[in-house]
Design goal:
The chain is α/β, with parallel strands linked by helices. Helices cover about 35% and strands about 15% of the residues. It has helices at about 5-20, 45-60, 75-80, 95-105, 110-120, 125-130, 150-155, 165-175, 190-195, 215-220, 225-235, 255-270, 275-280, 295-300, 315-325, 370-380, 430-450, and strands at about 25-30, 65-70, 180-185, 185, 275, 290, 300-305, 310, 330-335, 345-350, 355-360, 385-390, 395-410, 425. A hairpin with a 2-residue loop joins strand 12 and strand 13 (about 395-410). It is elongated. The N and C termini lie far apart (about 55 Å).
């Protein structure tokens, strides 16, 4: 073992006496250094790195070179920080869904399920290999017919370390970290070493967002105590599979369903007292996202606690608004049988029994002035500017100035504020990808890659 030898004397002897004629040095290859053991500061792993770093400093490039692979970059970065040698970092990224196709799919109709599996594993080769013996049970199933049971069977193959709730929350919030940041019991670099976070390493000084494979979340969702995450996973991957009977068509409403469940999840991750721009990550937006909120709404802190869940409308929006109790803590997803100007909405109660109505539109913004006008005509029939609800002898009032529409679309959105209707929040694709997080965004990317099955994104 290298650390037990007199490293320099051994290498020098080989270079001077044992190399074939015409050769000038040794190129050492160390594969998967993390398997040597140790906790990153002591033990074989650190000792090997220190011995190699010493050789790099005292021997020339023609005498000694080294190639190391590792999932635990901390010890290497510490050892070479002051080395006279340059270190060239080569990022080994995970497998993409398309790259997984040749490994498992032999026919065209098998590509969809293979891509879905690769998306759920985060391109993790050992987990993909574990599914090989069972692929006859799922490889020929059309992607549009996937059920939650299929995903749970794959999740049972997860063999890596379990994530802590702190790590899951950091990943879902899109929290920016460096490798040495402590997240729960471990540093980010150590979570990567354990195989829990899957992300390419670009260097010590780069920023990272912890990224978890979705299959890891499925495997652990019942133990994390995060109800809103469980709701999203069971209703959105596959879309609403937990409530779909065998043989029924998959609802073509992927993005709108995903977004409203994400809204509730985000509430569980952030501070309860927050403004709407803060909630949607718009405090310092420079990507074309923004808002045209009235000043009073822009500054108003809201108590955005998680709601009970998502209710789906079975009637028209106008009919539902006649009967709704605005105090009930639900998100509402509009039905598919009527053309609504919005796809989802929720109420918040403001001081003085005032109401805030937030509608969400997840398609393109074509005709968005008309959509806002149509929504207001539904909310305020007979050309009024307020609507009252009397519930249990209490009166609640919705004013036109307290109606907000969030346009959250992966399609093109006008980025010139002069073109926006009043009181809208505009979330462009770049903003949504940050908000949804690298951990959850693969859900949407998979559906986008299969428009023949899921065509509403």
């Amino acid at each position: 073992m290298l650390p037990t030898l007199r490293s320099y004397g051994t290498m020098k002897h080989i270079v001077e006496h044992l190399l074939p004629k015409g050769k000038t040095g040794i190129f050492l290859m160390v594969d998967d250094l993390a398997q040597a053991g140790g906790n990153g500061t002591t033990g074989p792993e650190q000792s090997i790195v220190e011995a190699i770093e010493h050789l790099l400093d005292i021997m020339s490039e023609t005498e000694f070179g080294v190639l190391m692979t590792t999932t635990h970059v901390g010890p290497i970065m510490d050892a070479v920080a002051n080395s006279r040698r340059n270190v060239n970092w080569v990022t080994l990224r995970p497998l993409t869904p398309d790259e997984a196709i040749p490994l498992l799919a032999s026919e065209d109709h098998q590509k969809g399920m293979t891509q879905c599996l690769a998306m759920l594993t985060g391109g993790h080769l050992p987990t993909l290999a574990n599914t090989f013996n069972t692929k006859a049970n799922w490889i020929n199933i059309p992607l549009s017919s996937i059920t939650l049971e299929h995903i749970q069977q794959w999740a049972n193959l997860w063999e890596e370390y379990h994530p802590s709730q702190d790590l899951v929350m950091a990943a879902l919030k899109g929290q920016v970290c460096i490798l040495e940041n402590q997240i729960g019991d471990w540093k980010l670099s150590e979570w990567i070493k354990l195989g829990v976070c899957h992300q390419p390493i670009r260097g010590a000084r780069h920023d990272y967002v912890p990224t978890l494979p979705l299959l890891c979340l499925y495997h652990n969702m019942n133990h994390l105590g995060m109800r809103q995450l469980t709701d999203l996973l069971t209703h959105c991957v596959p879309p609403h599979a937990s409530q779909r009977k065998v043989g029924e068509a998959t609802p073509h409403r992927i993005l709108e369903r995903f977004h409203i469940y994400w809204e509730n999840l985000r509430r569980s991750l952030l501070s309860n007292e927050i403004t709407l721009p803060e909630f949607y990550g718009l405090e310092f937006a420079v990507d074309g996202s923004g808002h045209s909120l009235h000043f009073s709404l822009y500054l108003r802190g809201l108590h955005l606690v998680p709601k009970l869940g998502v209710n789906e409308l079975t009637t028209s929006l106008s009919s539902f608004l006649e009967e709704v109790d605005p105090r009930e803590a639900w998100f509402y997803l509009c039905g598919t049988d009527t053309n609504h100007p919005i796809h989802a909405f929720y109420f918040e109660i403001l001081p003085g029994n005032q109401l805030l109505f937030v509608g969400i539109n997840n398609h393109d913004t074509e005709g968005w002035h008309e959509k806002v006008d149509t929504l207001k005509s539904i909310l305020f029939p007979n050309k009024t500017t307020e609507r009252c609800y009397e519930v249990s002898s209490e009166k609640y009032t919705l004013l036109e100035k307290n109606v907000v529409v969030v346009f959250a679309s992966l399609q093109s959105v006008p980025t010139n504020p002069d073109e926006w209707p009043p009181n809208v929040i505009v979330l462009v694709r770049e903003r949504l990808e940050k908000l949804y997080s690298p951990t959850l965004m693969p859900i949407i990317k998979l559906w986008l890659s299969h428009p023949e099955d899921f065509n509403d994104c």
